[in-house]
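TASK: fixed-backbone design
INPUT:
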C-alpha cells in the first residue's frame, strides 16, 4: 500500500524543485491544471507544459511528451486520468527524473510502486497547490 512522504519531505521537494513539467495541462483557463500551473509560475517555478496537440499555453512552449523537453526537469506534476498515469510514470523512470506528483484524484498504486522502486520521490492523490500553501508559503 502506497504512503505519501512525510510533510517535511514534501516541503523539501517543493522548496528544492525549480522546474516543474505539468503533464495534461489544459489550455482552458477554467481548468484546474491551467490555474495551478499559473499559480506555480507566480510562486517562482519554471513551468513546462506537456500536452500533445497544443503548441503553447500560458505563453509557454508546450511539448507533446516529457522526452521532447530539452532541459532538466525536477518534478513532473500529472493531471491525467489514473489509468493514463502508468505510461507517464514509465516515461519518467526511463528519463531518470527525480520526482513525480500525481494530482488529487490521480491514484495509480502500481505506477507509484514502480516509481518508488526506481528511486523516485512520489506524491499521489494530493493537490500541489494545497500542499505548497500548507507547507511552504
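OUTPUT:
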Amino acid at each position: 500500500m502506497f504512503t505519501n512522504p512525510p510533510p517535511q519531505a514534501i516541503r523539501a521537494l517543493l522548496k528544492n524543485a525549480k522546474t516543474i513539467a505539468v503533464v495534461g495541462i489544459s489550455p482552458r483557463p477554467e481548468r484546474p491544471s491551467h490555474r495551478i500551473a499559473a499559480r506555480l509560475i507566480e510562486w517562482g517555478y519554471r513551468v513546462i507544459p506537456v500536452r500533445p496537440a497544443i503548441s503553447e499555453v500560458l505563453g509557454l512552449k508546450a511539448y507533446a511528451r516529457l522526452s521532447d523537453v530539452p532541459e532538466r526537469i525536477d518534478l513532473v506534476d500529472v493531471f491525467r486520468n489514473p489509468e493514463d498515469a502508468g505510461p507517464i510514470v514509465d516515461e519518467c523512470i526511463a528519463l531518470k527524473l527525480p520526482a513525480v506528483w500525481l494530482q488529487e484524484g490521480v491514484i495509480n498504486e502500481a505506477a507509484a510502486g514502480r516509481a518508488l522502486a526506481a528511486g523516485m520521490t512520489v506524491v499521489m492523490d494530493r493537490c500541489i497547490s494545497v500542499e505548497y500553501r500548507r507547507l511552504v508559503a
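COMMENT: The first strand starts at residue 19 and ends at 23.
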